[in-house]
């Protein structure tokens, strides 16, 4: 086989209640090197999704028990399977059916009678995309694991990443941020301190006050964290949060001394929740403050010009109203 004819292989699930259709797809795809699994209805298709790693699903629209639209909707609603490409196969060319397919999250459509060249072209394209997505997920998993390993060095910061993720996402949603920024906050909550991998444990875990030299080294961790995550294109909106979550509105923060709106709004959100979590978590050098005590201190810091008053006021409202009550209790317990 010539290099230009080398194809991306993968596992394809074909769901169709007609045996002749299943056999046709099996023959066409298997002859091209794909591993093909078949299901004779929608319920069986979903069972197969739980048993094998699937790279692409071909769904007949008209099936008993669960039709193709319903199966597609369930696949896309499951966080374990929503990235798997789904192609709806139908004899119908009605516009409404395509609209319904788009609504339930279908990635592509094929109309019967299926053209062999069109089928193989679309399948190869979608599986290449799936493989790239898998690589991206693996890279993200490595970063998340590294971030959690840093957190795990200090028993006093256990759960810090998850709390920051939940606080910042909830706050971002209440501030009506775009979905891209909400996703960035979710990721940044986990990896914001990943640059501490370059900080020696003797400094990172020191119970007392840091020396000027040690503090200077600690202040480099946002820049190091940005550098670690920079190669991942999906983290572009995360990088400003990592770099600037220790800035202050009056310019007295680090690493760049940014002021006011020069600090990205997502970084300003993480600043607020990070400070709150630090205040309400037990550390070797201090007891955990209550919610009321922490908010009083932060109000004083807002008056000094450190934190965004609009963002802090919204966070304070959410905390005191009980909207984030469970998260606040977890933080106060030092979990």
Biggest sheet features? 5 strands, parallel
CATH class of the largest domain: Mainly Alpha
How much is the radius of gyration in Å?
25 Å
> Could you name the CATH topology of the largest domain?
Hypothetical protein af1432
CATH structural architecture of the largest domain? Orthogonal Bundle
Q: What is the share of helical residues? A: 40-55%
Sheet with the most strands: spatial strand order: 2-1-3-4-5
The residue-averaged pLDDT reads 87
- Helix/strand class: alpha/beta
What is the total tally of β strands? Answer: 5
Report the β-strand fraction as a percent range.
5-15%
The outline comes out as elongated
Can you walk me through this structure?
There is one protein chain. By secondary structure, the chain is α/β, with parallel strands linked by helices. The protein folds into 2 domains: 3-133, Response regulator (Rossmann fold, 3-Layer(aba) Sandwich); 153-332, Hypothetical protein af1432, CATH 1.10.3210.10. The chain contains 15 helices and 5 strands. The chain has helices at residues 19-30, 42-51, 68-77, 95-103, 116-152, 160-174, 179-191, 201-204, 212-218, 221-229, 239-244, 265-279, 291-304, 309-321, 325-332; strands at 11-15, 35-39, 56-60, 86-90, 108-111. A 5-stranded parallel sheet has the order 2-1-3-4-5, sandwiched between helices. α12 (265-279) crosses α13. The protein is elongated. It starts with 10 loop residues before the first strand and ends with a helix. The model is unreliable at 1-8 and 326-335 (pLDDT under 50).
Q: What attributes characterize this protein structure?
A:
335 residues, alpha/beta, Rossmann fold, Hypothetical protein af1432, 2 domains, 5-stranded parallel beta sheet, 54% helix
